[in-house]
């Protein structure tokens, strides 16, 4: 059983979730209001000024200025959020594989049993009715990450 891998992933997810921050970062370099500053004379501008753009609970796109003191935590948080998506997807794929494998095993075990009992219970049809083709529309919303 791949439960070891599962546990590792869950631990990683928990660690990432603790520090995750939703949003994308945009950096800007600006000129200041000080006359004669290097930034007005073709020198390097000031920055980076960090802006966190995210979708708020109402669904409206919002942005927040990130003060210098919060730069590293916010950058780390955004990276953690990205990693969280990746790991969560891995976990969900493991879940799917496990569920399907289990179902396959059960079906072949049932078939095995049916074959064993087959002699006595011959002629009984399986209760599998009409089956709709369901495709759980996997909308891959891979957003441009940075
Ligand atoms: Zn300046």
Question: What is the strand and helix layout of this fold?
Answer:
Blueprint: H1 3-19, E1 24-30, E2 46-55, E3 61-66, H2 71-117
Antiparallel strand pairs: 1-2, 2-3
Helix pairs in contact: 1-2
The chain binds zinc ion.
Strand content: 15-25%
Number of helices: 2
Q: Give the H and E element order.
A: HEEEH
Major sheet: 3 strands, antiparallel
Number of domains: 1
Bound compounds:
zinc ion
Structural class by secondary-structure content: alpha+beta
Counting copies of identical and different chains, the oligomeric state is: single chain
Task: Please describe the structure with a list of short key phrases separated by commas or semicolons.
single chain; 146 residues; three-stranded antiparallel beta sheet; alpha+beta
Written account of the structure:
Residues 138-146 have low confidence and may be disordered. Strand 2 (46-55) and strand 3 (61-66) form a beta hairpin. Helix 1 runs antiparallel to helix 2 (71-117). Helices cover 44% and strands 16% of the residues. Strands 1-2-3 form a 3-stranded antiparallel beta sheet, with helices on one face. The chain has one domain (3-107). It has helices spanning 3-19, 71-117; strands at 24-30, 46-55, 61-66. It is α+β, with helices and mostly antiparallel strands and 146 residues long. Residues 31-32, 34, 37, 39, 46 line the site of zinc ion. The site of zinc ion has 6 residues, from loops.
